[in-house]
Amino acid sequence: MSQAKKILGATILLMGVTFLSKIIGFLREVFIAAEFGTSHQADIFVAVSTIPNLLLTITGGALSAALIPLIIRLRNQKETERLKKLVSSTFTLTSLVMIGLASLLFLFVEEFAGVYVMGFGEEAKNLTVEMIQIIIPALIAIGLISLFSSILNAYQHFLIPSLGPIFL
């Protein structure tokens, strides 16, 4: 298969999965609106759900921009040992950074929540703290998912990484 056909196929695949992801996201919003209506709980849920989305965008973009060209270059130069060291050290560093960020958020969750939902009452702040504590483990996974997605993209495997937003 020619390179142009591979690119076209990958583009169509990504467009289709992105479209499916947006439809599922829309249905999620419809469900939330039907379940909670316009309430502080719904507002807090939406506010807290931006945390993993923001983190995924930042880590995914940074890891892709930094890793994909390096992986492709090392793979093309058949530098298997350097490639293994790169992936291993990046996995370790990403894990440590995400665990560190999650730990900091856990330690300072009340302060963060107080700023994050400023203007809401104490009950809303407590609910925000509870919701953030629920998503903290997911933050570690998001960093690692971004790393694995970058590696798969460098090897031109686009389907599995493109399915991530559907589950998010």
TrEMBL record:
Source superkingdom: Bacteria
Cellular component per GO, a single term: plasma membrane
Keyword Plastid: no
Subcellular location: Cell membrane
Example of a GO MF term: lipid-linked peptidoglycan transporter activity
Claim: Endoplasmic reticulum is one of the keywords in the record: no
Transmembrane segments: 12-34, 54-74, 86-109, 134-155
InterPro entries according to UniProt: Lipid_II_flippase_MurJ/MviN (IPR051050), MurJ (IPR004268)
GO biological process: lipid translocation; peptidoglycan biosynthetic process; regulation of cell shape
Keywords assigned by UniProt, alphabetized: Cell membrane, Cell shape, Membrane, Peptidoglycan synthesis, Transmembrane, Transmembrane helix
PANTHER family: LIPID II FLIPPASE MURJ
Record-given protein name: Lipid II flippase MurJ
Organism: Tepidibacillus decaturensis
